[in-house]
Prior knowledge:
The protein has helices at about 55-60, 85-90, 110-125, 135-145, 160-170, 195-215, 235-240, 285-290, 340-350, 375-390, 415-425, 435-440, 455-460, and strands at about 5-10, 15, 30-35, 75-80, 95, 100-105, 125-130, 155-160, 175-180, 220, 240-245, 255-260, 270-275, 280, 300-310, 310-325, 330-335, 360-365, 395-400, 400-405, 410, 430-435, 450. By secondary structure, the chain is α/β, with parallel strands linked by helices.
Amino acid sequence: MSKKETVFVCQECGYESPKWAGQCICGAWNSFVEERISPAGATGANRQPGIGGHSAGSERQAGAVSLFEVKSGEYERMDTGISELNRVLGGGLVKGSLTLVAGEPGIGKSTVILEAAAHIAEKYGPVLYVSGEESEEQIRMRADRVCPNLPRRLYLLAETNMERIFDVISRTKPSFLIVDSIQTMYSGYLESAPGSVSQVRTCTGELMRFGKNDGIPVFIVAHVTKSGDLAGPKIVEHLVDCVLLFTGERDQDLRILRSNKNRFGTTSEIGAFEMGESGLIPIENLSKSFLDGMDADAEGAVATAIYEGTRPLLLELQALTAPANVGFARRSALGVEAPRLNMILAVLERRAGISLTNQDVYVNVVGGVKPEGTSLDLAVALAIYSSFRGIPAGAKTLAIGEISLTGDLRSVRHADKIVNEAARLGFSRVILPKKNVEKLRGGADAIRLAGVNSVREAIALL
């Protein structure tokens, strides 16, 4: 097919134009993307091949299947050899799945993928690692550091042209395919530059069809913007089965792998790694690592917990109050949403009689993690009060609970599992909503449960 057999389609109204235009007839600006034209009526052997010519040989005749005959929830998974990666994926890598891995440069994406590729090549069969950013020598240097025993069936390919990549795939027949990164890949059938909307969408679509047709799991690495969002067209996130996001601070060794989308598992699961000299090391007891170094006599430090995926996660939350010098008082939060912090401060003033209008307030979740949910509300309020009054909360006290605008505490989910984890880690008291205490069964013998109805009652316990 000639490169000229393309058309520009408006993503707003669907209008087709033979050439690119800044504004569409519908009024939308910069909405045109380049698409290939398939010959009308072409089927079977007469159809134009896709990228690398793999589509013509792997096309299957379309047909409806009875929903009653479809097997439910049965996926054949592959062990990646990394426990935390298996956890985030939902138990392993599903054959035929397309997974998008994103994160800032140098955060550890390529490292963890290379470790998984080496294990899969040793256990299941050939693995093809396609790199558009690094040479074979650079990847080998990283492999020498993170993989002590290199398997012979792990193949490297430094290439960005999708036609040549699929030619190598047809000869290698890998059991696992890695493309790093999707923004560097391009198809010769499109005239646009690599990384453009049309190139990224076309290359991702071809990789998805290849994986689904041949039952081969595919990992694609993507870049992120300065704000931490995935770069490129939003349709890529809709095409893939899983979206994994690597986060972490450059000055710390902790790395968090979070699933933003997963068609084969939960999206609230997280995996934790420690960056070491030999690569990423999975952290099995994440709660203990977060609580290490917590001072029992520290003012403004309170232990709290959230439930992530299939396990409770205990954290240390710190707060600091200081008299405001000039102008408006400052409000700063790391790991806690700023609107949530302002709401908690308003509740403390109206419902607990604590005025902080002339105080700078700083709140931080230790470890750089950004937990989701509202179970941290009570710990935020107690940490602020502890710093403001100079009263230590104690390292053996844990607080959970959602604060409402009336100052009452709402119950939190999975409180029983959080209490059991707190007892296992040596906590002696848990401050939590009274509604949760009434529902708890078991786990309360080894730890004292302090049920409260409002934030005022919780403050009185300090």
